Amino acid sequence: MPDFKDVKLLGFDVFGTVVDWRGSVARHVDKVFSSQGIVLDPYKFASDWRSLYQPAMERVRTGERSWVPLDVLNLENLKVTLAYSGVDATRFTAQGLNDLNKAWERLAPWPDSVAAIDRLKRKFAVGTISNGHVAGMLWLSKFAELHWDVILGAETAKNYKPRPEVYFRSAESAGLSIEETAMVAAHNDDLEAARGCGMKTVFVRRPTEHGPDQTTDLVADDECDIAVKDLAELADVLEC
Amino acid sequence: MPDFKDVKLLGFDVFGTVVDWRGSVARHVDKVFSSQGIVLDPYKFASDWRSLYQPAMERVRTGERSWVPLDVLNLENLKVTLAYSGVDATRFTAQGLNDLNKAWERLAPWPDSVAAIDRLKRKFAVGTISNGHVAGMLWLSKFAELHWDVILGAETAKNYKPRPEVYFRSAESAGLSIEETAMVAAHNDDLEAARGCGMKTVFVRRPTEHGPDQTTDLVADDECDIAVKDLAELADVLEC
Q1: Chain-chain contact of A175 with B141 (C-beta, under 8 angstroms)
Q2: Which distant-in-sequence residues (6+ apart) come within 8 Å of B37 by Cβ?
Q3: What pLDDT score was predicted for residue A2?
Q4: Which of A15, A169, A192, B142 could cross-link with A157 by S-S, CB 3.0 to 4.6 Å?
């Protein structure tokens, strides 16, 4: 077993690591679009919508824009994606747009996630260190039946990963030194930033997060403390 | 059943409502004091320590002092209580004082709490709206096996109940309007403040929170939406 004896909190990235955002968002928008007679590739729509996520957060990270929670960015990006896809956003009421935006609170967990996190929870505190906001994580977790001990991450720090303050503030908010925490993610850039702050790092392989032709994050960087094929393997490795 | 159909989040006061702070703190300090040959009434010590809690928070509420989390106040109050009790605080290392202060993260739940909250969680989001800070709630809940969906309250608002912003910010952080939330507490003043903000209110009778001679909060104010003898009865009333 890797040396995790001082680790008290496992902090999880959520979108892509714990839940399948692409398939879930595609199913959610497909249902709404179909009911309105809008013909679109829902997987492409999900990917296009998601492609605006990093640039939108980057404006907050650089200080160009002050902190706003992720649902605000997602709603703005939804309107851009609708326009880009040739859909007149005025077809939807404000409530209709909000309902579409709630796609991000209706994401299915990967098949291993729920049971493995319950196992890990016996030995560690388990929390989210996501760019999602508290309300988004709360309702997503109720939907997906994910049983966190604590919701940390972007809203705790009022900034977005991979800014170091998100990792540091999350540890501090849990009453821990950064060395007592580990980051669990399917994304090497997130883990690199967490490692730079002093966290242990766990890479989870999610080779279809971005669809069948995914080319990124197929393997862990060498620096990761643990690399696993899913969270069940992580529970095994950590003897939970 | 009372009209709770719009309520999505039950926000719980914790100290006294969900856990027995007096008995637990007394047992914790008694063990430490006994090991050091210090002879004290541990129940009186617990009550004396707790008696400094409201005045310490009041300085933050009034703005005389800027926000500090509850463990900071508890540690300051511990030193005062030791002095008041005739114990030389320099007998303890900084670590020893911190260990004593951790009494507040080692509180036993009332016998009905854990199972009832698990039942309520099936139908509602359940969260803390406590004056405890996030780390304190996290580790207390791990210790007591309380399974919250979210930790809200004082640290979310950077102020202390019964200041209205604690209730409002907790609802907002959960993505809800205040009318979609209910406060569950054993203290009428907490419930009165929550009601003033627009929350539904649930009084839970904890007649020995302050010991066998308790004279306060033995009955609910008439304005409470629900009054129950314990949380199991609340789960019954709300048909969970």
Answers
A1: no
A2: none
A3: 78
A4: A169
A147 touching chain B per CB within 8 A: yes
Look up residue B126 and give its two tokens: 């359940």
CB of A151 less than 8 A from some CB of B? yes
A-B Cβ pairs (cutoff 8 Å, strict): 49
For residue A125, list chain B residues with Cβ-Cβ distance below 8 A: 138-139, 142
Cα separation values, B206 from A61, A203, B106, B113, B209, Å: 47, 47, 19, 12, 6
Instruction: Please check whether residue B125 touches A, CB under 8 A.
Output: yes
**Do residues B178 and B198 make contact, with C-beta atoms less than 8 angstroms apart?**
yes
Per the omega criterion (within 30 degrees of 0), is the bond before A162 cis?
yes
Mean pLDDT, residues A91-120: 96
ipTM: 0.95
Q: Which residues contact B160 (CB under 8 A, 6 or more apart)?
A: B57, B60, B61, B131, B154, B166
Average pLDDT, chain A: 96
What domains are defined for chain A?
9-18+110-237 (3.40.50.1000), 21-105 (1.10.150.240)
Provide CB contacts within 8 A for B109, sequence distance 6+. B18, B19, B20, B144, B145, B146
pLDDT tens-digit readout, B67-123: 999 999 999 999 999 999 999 989 999 999 999 999 999 999 999 999 999 999 999
| Closest-CA residue to B8 (of B203, B179, B197) | B179
